[in-house]
C-alpha cells in the first residue's frame, strides 16, 4: 500500500540525501494506513548499492524484520502450509537479541543495514529495554524503522532517540484505488461501505472486505440509532462475528466499531457527544487489549454492543 504519503517520502528522501542521516525513525499513524509497506520500501532504498542487483526485501540479508511470530509449533506448521495461523501476542526479547547478534557483523551487500520492527508498540517490556541499548549505541551503518500505531506507548527514552515520520489517513479516492487493486471482488456498494468505515485506513478497508463485515457494519449502525433493550441486535452481532472468531476477526470488529462511533461525533447535542467520546475511548482500550488478551467472543460482543447502544439512549435534541 504505497498510495499517498508524499510528505513522509519527501522527508525520507531528503534525509537519505543528507550528509548525516538519523539512525532511528518512528513511523507513526493509524493502523492500516501503510506504514509497514513504507518501512519495507524505504529499507530497500536505504540498503541498495548503485550497480549491484538487490534481492527482494523479504530475503535481503541486510533487511531485518521483527514482527509477530506464530504462536506455537502448530501455528508455524500452518504458516508453512499457507493456512491461516495465530500470532504471538508480542514481539519478544529473544527476537531482539537475535537481531542484535546479527548487528555485530558488517552488512552483507553494501554499507547499510535496516532493522524494521512492526509494530514496535507490541514489543514486550524486556524487548523494549534491550532495543534501547542498540538505539543508544547504534552500530555503524545500521538504521532502525519502528512502525508505531500508538507511539505514546513507547518509552520516552525510545521516542527521544528517534525522528518521527507521521502518516495521515488517506482520502476516499486513494482508499478506493487500493480496494479496486487489492480486492477486485468487492462491488461498488461494498467498497463505499468499507471506505466509510475505515476512516482513511486502507488496511481497515481491506479487512472490511476480506472479513465480510458488511452485515456487522449494518448491525452496529442500527445499535447506535435504535439501542438494544431486548439484546436482539447483540445476538445478531454474535452470529455475524461467529462462534469462534480468531484474533484478527475480533480486532477487525473492534476497529469497525470505533469507526462507527467516530462517525457519530458530529450528531446530537453535547451530552450525547460526551457519550460518543467515552464509548470511543473504551473501544480504543479494547483495541489495545485485543493483541494480548484472549477475549470470550460472547462477552466481547456484549461489550461492543453495549457501548454502541449507549449512544441511542436517551437521545437529546440539539
Describe what you observe in this structure:
The chain is of the alpha/beta class and 318 residues long. It folds into 2 domains: 6-167, Rossmann fold; 211-312. The chain is built from 14 helices and 5 strands. The chain has helices at residues 6-16, 35-47, 73-80, 93-102, 125-136, 156-159, 172-182, 188-198, 202-210, 214-226, 232-241, 247-262, 270-290, 297-309; strands at residues 24-29, 63-66, 113-117, 142-148, 163-167. The chain has a 5-stranded parallel β-sheet with strand order 2-3-4-1-5, sandwiched between helices. Strand 3, helix 5 (125-136) and strand 4 form a beta-alpha-beta unit. Helix 8 (188-198) packs across helix 9 (202-210), helix 10 (214-226) runs antiparallel to helix 11 (232-241) and helix 11 crosses helix 14 (297-309). The protein is elongated. The model has no long low-confidence stretch (mean pLDDT 91).
Nutshell version of this structure?
The chain is of the alpha/beta class and 318 residues long.
Q: How many individual β-strands?
A: 5
Helix content: 40-55%
Radius of gyration: 21 Å
The total number of structural domains is: 2
Mean pLDDT across all residues, rounded? 91
User: What profile does the largest beta sheet have?
Assistant: 5 strands, parallel
Percent of sequence in beta strands:
5-15%
Number of helical segments with 4 or more residues:
14
Strand arrangement, largest sheet? Answer: 2-3-4-1-5
Low-confidence residue ranges? none
Question: Do you know the CATH architecture of the largest domain?
Answer: 3-Layer(aba) Sandwich
Give the termini distance in whole angstroms: 41 Å
Quick one: overall form?
elongated
The CATH class assignment of the largest domain is Alpha Beta
CATH level 4 superfamily of the largest domain: P-loop containing nucleotide triphosphate hydrolases
What's the order of the H and E elements? HEHEHHEHEHEHHHHHHHH
Helical/strand content category:
alpha/beta
Do you know the CATH topology of the largest domain?
Rossmann fold
Pfam families: DNA_pol3_delta2 (PF13177)
Protein name: DNA polymerase III subunit delta
Amino acid at each position: 500500500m504505497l498510495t499517498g504519503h508524499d510528505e513522509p517520502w519527501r522527508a525520507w528522501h531528503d534525509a537519505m540525501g543528507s550528509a548525516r542521516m538519523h539512525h532511528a525513525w518512528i513511523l507513526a499513524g493509524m493502523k492500516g494506513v501503510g506504514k509497514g509497506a513504507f518501512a519495507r520500501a524505504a529499507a530497500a532504498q536505504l540498503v541498495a548499492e548503485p550497480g549491484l542487483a538487490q534481492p527482494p526485501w523479504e530475503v535481503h540479508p541486510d533487511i531485518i524484520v521483527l514482527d509477530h511470530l506464530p504462536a506455537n509449533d502448530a501455528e508455524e506448521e500452518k504458516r508453512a502450509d499457507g493456512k491461516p495461523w495465530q500470532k504471538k501476542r508480542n514481539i519478544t526479547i529473544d527476537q531482539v537479541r537475535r537481531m542484535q547478534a546479527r548487528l555485530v557483523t558488517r552488512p552483507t551487500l553494501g554499507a547499510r543495514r535496516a532493522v524494521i520492527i512492526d509494530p514496535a508498540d507490541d514489543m514486550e517490556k524486556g524487548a523494549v529495554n534491550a532495543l534501547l541499548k542498540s538505539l543508544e549505541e547504534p552500530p555503524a551503518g545500521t538504521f532502525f524503522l519502528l512502525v508505531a500505531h500508538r507511539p505514546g506507548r513507547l518509552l520516552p527514552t525510545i521516542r527521544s532517540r528517534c525522528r518521527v515520520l507521521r502518516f495521515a489517513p488517506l482520502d476516499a479516492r486513494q482508499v478506493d484505488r487500493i480496494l479496486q487493486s487489492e480486492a477486485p471482488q468487492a462491488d461498488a456498494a461494498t467498497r463505499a461501505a468499507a471506505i466509510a468505515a475505515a476512516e482513511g485506513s486502507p488496511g481497515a478497508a481491506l479487512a472490511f472486505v476480506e472479513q465480510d463485515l458488511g452485515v456487522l457494519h449494518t448491525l452496529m449502525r442500527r445499535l447506535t440509532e435504535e439501542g438494544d433493550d431486548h439484546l436482539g441486535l447483540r445476538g445478531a452481532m454474535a452470529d455475524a462475528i461467529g462462534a469462534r472468531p480468531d484474533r484478527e476477526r475480533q480486532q477487525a470488529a473492534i476497529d469497525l466499531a470505533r469507526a462507527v462511533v467516530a462517525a457519530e461525533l458530529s450528531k446530537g447535542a453535547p451530552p450525547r457527544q460526551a457519550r460518543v467520546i467515552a464509548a470511543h475511548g473504551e473501544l480504543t482500550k479494547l483495541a489495545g487489549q485485543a493483541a494480548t488478551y484472549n477475549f470470550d467472543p460472547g462477552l466481547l460482543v456484549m461489550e461492543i454492543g453495549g457501548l454502541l447502544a449507549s449512544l441511542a439512549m436517551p437521545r437529546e435534541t440539539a
